[in-house]
């Protein structure tokens, strides 16, 4: 692996930044009670929710994985983000009000409100395992790849341990408040740093991008043929939205930030704000990754393209800022996963088993759980290198586990006949199918793209949930309050928003977001 030199001033900038983030996170932490520690007191305004959500979502799979995928296959990888923006609007309109009104701490807790404890325990366990072995381990591995470029002689395991300690040092003492307040700084640094990198990338290789554009090259196309190995066009319609709903609307790590909003309206505006920020990743992550094909041809691992751009394109001083931005994305992701996973364990398992536990005991258990979680993630992280592309590793695993869970949520919210027994049978059936695919995918689906497998798994799970529900009694009315969609609520809300100033109306901003998304699909 090629090593790059880094000046003293850049090292000082990175060190000062990391120390500041730790201090800032600890200073703004709240751990007096469970609501403060796990949900920041449900007091966050929309812009805090939006910035925090964006920082937590720009994980290793986005920054390292998407730029690497753009390097390898072109701009089509941005479809994940663009489809995600459509999903954010869907989430803000239909699901978010139910989550906040039901006053849940965790998304699996919402499943219990709608169905029963079995669904809650199953989903929570799946989330905990996924958070540790997919998300947290992936973020630690990505951080280690970057430092390995600068200091190739340092052991990979040691780097992983150091990053685990940095993220844990402020997240464990201060809870979600620490994580969110650190993420505000990290989001700003990440955006500014990425804009700088994009500028230097265009100044040295912009001609390559404009030549591809002028020649209508497949690399600059978002809509690809059905035979495309990266993102077949049908996958955009039948596969990506399902993964998007799981990522943005069922994912405790991200939704926990929305649950911290002080009102439904603030939460919605925060999600829409995140949509606008996510749109910028086309220009600050995907396009630079594509330009790097010409700047750094023949990289053995596409995942190394973003670290290469940072190390080779940024001048002294700004290199330190960019490394700080890069580490921002990674530490904020680890921090977010750490807090959300400890919340899942504490509220979905410990608090249910130990009913007499007071608020202080719950916070203590949350802190202990965080320590165990970060240790497990650090132990697994070195194994990820065996899976090739970080993005492929993440998306393919997600395509197996997400459809049954999305099916349970969608049917539960939009169909009042579905009940707890049907949902649990569907979730378990989906899990067994996922295990089968893990070992026998080629025998069942052949070479079918994983995005095209998703609708089969979703429809199968929906059919099982609905048909199984018919063999059990109709859900009690109590289970349907604040857990199912109501057209009456939507109409009442529309009437209220018509009297609101346009710039305060989240629906106007959601419509603008959808129009811009369509515009990008048309252009590319």
Automatic annotation (TrEMBL):
Subcellular location: Membrane
GO cellular component: plasma membrane
Membrane topology classification: Multi-pass membrane protein
Membrane spanning stretches: 6-26, 46-65, 77-100, 121-144, 156-176, 188-210, 230-249, 270-296, 316-341, 362-381, 393-414, 421-440, 452-472, 506-523
CDD domains: SLC5sbd_SGLT1-like (cd10329)
Location, primary (coarse class): membrane
PROSITE patterns assigned: NA_SOLUT_SYMP_3 (PS50283)
GO molecular function, one term: D-glucose:sodium symporter activity
Keyword entries, A-Z: Membrane, Transmembrane, Transmembrane helix
Family under the similarity heading: Belongs to the sodium:solute symporter (SSF) (TC 2.A.21) family.
UniProt protein name: Sodium transporter
Native species: Bacteroides clarus
Organism placement in taxonomy: Bacteria, Pseudomonadati, Bacteroidota, Bacteroidia, Bacteroidales
């Amino acid at each position: 692996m090629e090593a790059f030199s880094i000046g003293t001033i850049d090292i000082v900038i990175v060190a000062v930044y990391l120390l500041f983030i730790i201090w800032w996170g600890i200073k703004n932490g709240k751990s007096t009670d469970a609501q403060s520690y796990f949900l920041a007191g449900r007091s966050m305004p929309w812009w805090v929710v939006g910035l925090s959500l964006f920082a937590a979502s720009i994980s290793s799979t986005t920054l390292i994985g998407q730029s690497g995928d753009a390097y390898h296959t072109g701009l089509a990888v941005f479809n994940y983000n663009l489809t995600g923006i459509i999903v954010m609007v869907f989430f803000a309109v239909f699901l978010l009000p139910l989550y906040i009104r039901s006053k849940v701490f965790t998304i699996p807790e919402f499943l219990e409100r709608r169905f029963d404890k079995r669904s809650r325990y199953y989903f929570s366990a799946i989330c905990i395992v996924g958070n540790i072995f997919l998300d947290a381990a992936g973020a630690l591995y990505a951080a280690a790849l970057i430092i390995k470029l600068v200091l190739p002689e340092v052991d990979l395991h040691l780097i992983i341990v150091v990053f685990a300690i940095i993220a844990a040092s402020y997240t464990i003492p201060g809870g979600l408040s620490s994580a969110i307040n650190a993420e505000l700084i990290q989001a700003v640094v990440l955006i500014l740093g990425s804009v700088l990198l994009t500028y230097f990338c265009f100044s040295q290789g912009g001609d390559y991008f404009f030549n591809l554009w002028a020649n209508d090259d497949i690399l600059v196309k978002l809509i690809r043929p059905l035979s495309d190995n990266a993102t077949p066009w049908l996958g955009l319609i039948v596969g990506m939205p399902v993964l998007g709903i799981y990522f943005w609307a069922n994912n405790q790590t991200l939704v926990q930030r929305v649950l911290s909003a002080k009102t439904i309206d603030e939460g919605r505006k925060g999600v829409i704000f995140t949509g606008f920020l996510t749109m910028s990743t086309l220009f600050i992550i995907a396009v630079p990754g594509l330009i790097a094909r010409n700047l750094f041809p023949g990289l053995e691992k596409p995942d190394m393209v973003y670290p290469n751009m940072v190390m080779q394109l940024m001048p002294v001083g700004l290199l330190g800022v960019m490394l700080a931005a890069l580490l921002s994305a990674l530490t904020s992701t680890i921090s977010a996963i750490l807090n959300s996973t400890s919340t899942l364990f504490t509220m979905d398992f410990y608090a249910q088993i130990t009913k007499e536990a007071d608020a202080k005991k719950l916070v203590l258990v949350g802190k202990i759980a965080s320590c165990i979680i970060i240790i497990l993630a650090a132990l697994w992280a070195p194994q990820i290198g065996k899976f090739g592309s970080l993005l492929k590793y993440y998306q393919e695993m997600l395509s197996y586990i997400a459809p049954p869970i999305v099916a349970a949520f969608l049917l539960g919210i939009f169909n009042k006949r579905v009940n707890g027994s049907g949902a649990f049978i569907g979730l378990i059936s989906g899990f067994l199918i996922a295990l089968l695919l893990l070992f026998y995918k080629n025998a069942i689906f052949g070479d079918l793209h994983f995005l095209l497998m998703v609708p089969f798994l979703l429809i199968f799970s929906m059919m099982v949930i609905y048909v199984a529900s018919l063999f059990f009694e109709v859900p009690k009315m109590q289970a349907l309050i604040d857990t199912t969609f109501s057209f009456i609520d939507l109409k009442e809300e529309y009437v209220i928003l018509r009297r609101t100033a346009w710039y305060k109306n989240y629906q106007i901003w959601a419509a603008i977001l959808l129009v811009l998304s369509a515009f990008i699909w048309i252009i590319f």
